[in-house]
Design a protein that fits this description.
Blueprint lengths: L18 E8 L4 E7 L4 E4 L4 E3 H9 L7 H13 L1 E4 L5 E4 H4 L11 E4 L5 E4 L2 E4 H6 L4 E4 L7 E3 L25
Parallel strand pairs: 6-7
Antiparallel strand pairs: 1-2, 1-11, 2-3, 3-4, 5-6, 5-10, 8-9
Length: 178
């Protein structure tokens, strides 16, 4: 997926790629202490286990489903960065490449799927591409809701799920500081 990083949920501090430190991946039921971040979404635990945060996020949201690493990655990316689109009548539209991985886990039967953003569809009596509908504000971008958000604490005492906000993406990618 490339080089990326996060800001901690409690202090809004960047987690630099290739750095050692102490952080906690915080879930509603448990927290996981990690001590190294590689800059590509993978943390290392105290015991030396590698934890991909996108796999972790997917498995936190769907604990009752078996997710292999490929499915967990796609679902984690979709939960972290995916959107669907809503018109003025509350009809939902989804980009099929993002939504396909979620179909077997949540009910998307009422969502109209499109193949690419140039595909023309009818929204409110206007036939245009998805991009044109977005530009003309006939569709509104809406984040895919997830039950468990990615939360990262910089101290154990702050690792309380209910008290933290979602970890934001680091604007410097954990690398390019000004």
């Amino acid at each position: 997926m490339g080089f990326f990083s996060f800001l901690t949920s409690d202090r809004n501090e960047s987690i630099a790629g290739g750095s050692h430190g102490e952080w906690w991946l915080v879930g509603p039921k448990e927290s996981l202490k990690v001590t190294y971040y590689d800059g590509f979404g993978r943390f290392t635990t105290v015991s030396g286990e590698t934890v991909n945060v996108l796999y972790w996020l997917a498995r936190q949201n769907f604990p009752d489903h078996y997710l292999d690493d490929e499915d967990a990655f796609e679902i984690g990316v979709t939960l972290r960065h995916g959107n669907f689109y809503v018109d003025h009548l509350s009809n939902r539209y989804g980009y099929s490449e993002c939504m396909d991985c979620l179909k077997r886990l949540i009910n998307l039967d009422d969502m109209l799927m499109f193949q690419d953003f140039q595909q023309e569809i009818n929204v409110g009596g206007v036939v245009a591409s998805i991009n044109e509908h977005l530009n003309e504000e006939r569709l509104t971008q809406t984040r895919i809701p997830c039950d468990v958000e990615l939360k990262i604490a910089s101290s154990e005492r702050n690792a309380v799920y209910e008290k933290l906000t979602e970890a934001k993406c680091c604007p410097y990618l954990g690398r390019y500081y000004s």
